[in-house]
Structure formats: structure tokens, C-alpha cells
């Protein structure tokens, strides 16, 4: 269940997680741009039954804000 192509957001549920200790959890990550080809990743770890739509909306908002912050700081140099 990945929507990374459109939003940079990935969802791992239970055993889909690359970290086996999180098999009873869900991990939702978003990648943001730092500039100069570098990226950062933010994520939320929670229960398998979480409000995915809300989590994705919040991560999208944070991703856009981080992208904007790093674009502005790049422009100040």
C-alpha cells in the first residue's frame, strides 16, 4: 500500500515493515527535500488500526512545510 509516486508517503502495516520488531505496528513515512539532492524522512509509528487518512494528511502537511522551510533557507544563502 504505497502512494510514494504521488506524495512521497509510504505505509507499512505489520509484517510489511522492514523492521521486524514493528510487526505489530504500522509505520507511515514521508520523504522531504533538503536540497542539493539530499532528503530527510519523517514517520509515525502506531497501531495497525489507526486513522490512516488523518495520519497521511498530517504527514503531507508537515512534508510540504519542511520542503518550504528548506527551499527558503536555500534561497537565503
Structure, described:
- By secondary structure, the protein is α+β, with helices and mostly antiparallel strands.
- The protein has one domain: 2-Layer Sandwich (Beta-Lactamase), CATH 3.30.450.
- Helix content is 36%, strand content 34%.
- It is built from two helices and three strands; from the N terminus they run H-E-E-E-H.
- A three-stranded antiparallel beta sheet has the order 1-2-3.
- The radius of gyration is 14 Å and the shape is elongated.
- The N and C termini lie far apart (39 Å).
- The model has no long low-confidence stretch (mean pLDDT 84).
- Top-tier CATH class: Alpha Beta
Question: What's the SSE pattern?
Answer: HEEEH
CATH architecture: 2-Layer Sandwich
Specify the number of helices: 2
> How large, in whole angstroms, is the Cα Rg?
14 Å
Q: Helix share of residues?
A: 25-40%
Overall pLDDT = 84
Structural class computed from helices and strand pairing? alpha+beta
CATH superfamily annotation: GAF domain
List unreliable stretches of 5+ residues. none
Strand order of the largest sheet: 1-2-3
Q: Which oligomerization state do the chains in this entry correspond to?
A: single chain
Describe the main β-sheet briefly: 3 strands, antiparallel
- In the CATH hierarchy, the third-tier topology is known as Beta-Lactamase
Task: Tell me the fraction of residues in β-strands, as a range.
Answer: 25-35%
Q: Provide the number of structural domains.
A: 1
Shape: elongated
- Intertermini distance: 39 Å
Let me know the number of strands.
Answer: 3
Amino acid at each position: 500500500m504505497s502512494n510514494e509516486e504521488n506524495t512521497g508517503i509510504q505505509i507499512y502495516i505489520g509484517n510489511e515493515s522492514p523492521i521486524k520488531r514493528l510487526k505489530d505496528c504500522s509505520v507511515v513515512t514521508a520523504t522531504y527535500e533538503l536540497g542539493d539532492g539530499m532528503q530527510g524522512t519523517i514517520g509515525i509509528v502506531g497501531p495497525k488500526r489507526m486513522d490512516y487518512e488523518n495520519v497521511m494528511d498530517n504527514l503531507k502537511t508537515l512534508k510540504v512545510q519542511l520542503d518550504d522551510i528548506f527551499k527558503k533557507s536555500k534561497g537565503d544563502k
